[in-house]
Amino acid sequence: xxxxxxxxxxxxxxxxxxxxxxxxxxxxxxxxxxxxxxxxxxxxxxxxxxxxxxxxxxxxxxxxxxxxxxxxxxxxxxxxxxxxxxxxxxxxxxxxxxxxxxxxxxxxxxxxxxxxxxxxxxxxxxxxxxxxxxxxxxxxxxxxxxxxxxxxxxxxxxxxxxxxxxxxxxxxxxxxxxxxxxxxxxxxxxxxxxxxxxxxxxxxxxxxxxxxxxxxxxxxxxxxxxxxxxxxxxxxxxxxxxxxxxxxxxxxxxxxxxxxxxxxxxxxxxxxxxxxxxxxxxxxxxxxxxxxxxxxxxxxxxxxxxxxxxxxxxxxxxxxxxxxxxxxxxxxxxxxxxxxxxxxxxxxxxxxxxxxxxxxxxxxxxxxxxxxxxxxxxxxxxxxxxxxxxxxxxxxxxxxxxxxxxxxxxxxx
Length: 413
Prior knowledge:
Growth Hormone, Chain: A; mainly alpha; single chain; 0% strand
């Protein structure tokens, strides 16, 4: 183990791609982890209703909708490293604003900073990894490295979750935001120091991007054309948009549901448990056995195992079953991203990679906005568990859509 640590340190000194990606990702994930156990409780503690709390998140998603495509083009033109650094910096500003906020519009201001940061990060970080691997002849290792890095980032959330839960219950529900901002600053510094410049790595052919507003508009237009002329990309974006719609109720309501059933003092431990489940999902996605299957087959299975437990548990409404089902559904949620990202990028040219991924994320933001509004409305008028039943049903519908896509692609061969 000591030898492994020395080797990792040497690789960091050499700015090896995998280790640099993992360190920055772990720090960024830890920053977000500080607010995970207490986010919804923080908003509700200031007198917001469930719908109003979701509306704060809606404005975050609306900002993402407007910002993700132009910031993706920014990354393709001015460099993915630059975009990642700016993303972490603006995210930290948003967290510090949240720390000082006490009402709806203060929370919105914090969300705007976070949205700008998230927009710069969307597509750029993964594109940076994939492009550098491609220049080294290791493009086929992308899914494994992405899975491994994200697995470690989720595992790192375990101590963060316990600390955030303790601080939120015994000190202040606002303090985790300050801790999140501080760690995000560390992630910004790590990105500056560790990530290799990528101006010479934006295209496998060695093409360098043009600069300026004209180039920004040109690459945005080219990316939009590529998306809409590639049916598989359109189908995958539709599927992920529906999935993003469905998971909003899981993301927003797990804390009040389990607080009511178990008490606030256990939320940190639950957040740790759920992130371990997600980390296990990423680990499964890194296994060679999964990579041997067609990605669509894996994605169909992932949706099935995500939707079925939540559908059964939300209908039966047995507390212990809800807890077990929620932990189980986090495993396929973890496995989904690396499998989907590797498959999606098979249809994307390197010079458009960050922008095309950001276009997809823009449509996903529409799903998030509508999911937040619909789930907030349903929760206020019926119940939070009713939103989970609806969400689980939609996830299973996505599995059916992916089956149709797989059959059409097999028929086209």
